[in-house]
Amino acid sequence: MAKQPNQTQAGTNIQHVKQQNAQQAGGQGQYGAEFASETNAAEVRKQNQQAEARKGQNSGQQS
Q1: CA 46 – CA 39 distance, rounded (Å)
Q2: Tell me, what's the pLDDT at 47?
Q3: Coil, helix or strand for 43?
Q4: Local structure of residue 13 (DSSP, 8 states)
């Protein structure tokens, strides 16, 4: 089977895929911002510090 220009070996139309990706990328900004605005960065840092402290305690007990 001869490969057509602008198509992958499997026969996918490259331009069509690029067009779909561009359309999807337009709406993704809102989706990502929605969840980012609900995230409390200070709270996440605090939880990460607590988790690291627990990890340190647990690894000390196993030695």
Answers
A1: 13
A2: 93
A3: helix
A4: B
Alpha-carbon span 19 to 12, nearest angstrom: 13
Residues 14 and 8: beta-carbon distance below 8 Å: yes
Q: What is this structure's pTM?
A: 0.36
Q: Per the structure block, which two tokens stand in for 41?
A: 């960065």
Cα separation, 56 vs 42, whole angstroms: 21
Q: Is 63 helix (H, G, I), strand (E, B) or coil?
A: coil
Measured CA to CA, the distance from residue 40 to residue 21 in angstroms comes to 30
How distant, in Å, are the alpha carbons of 29, 35, 45, 46 from that of 41? 19, 12, 6, 9
Run means of pLDDT, 10 residues per run, the chain, 63 residues: 73 85 65 63 90 84 58
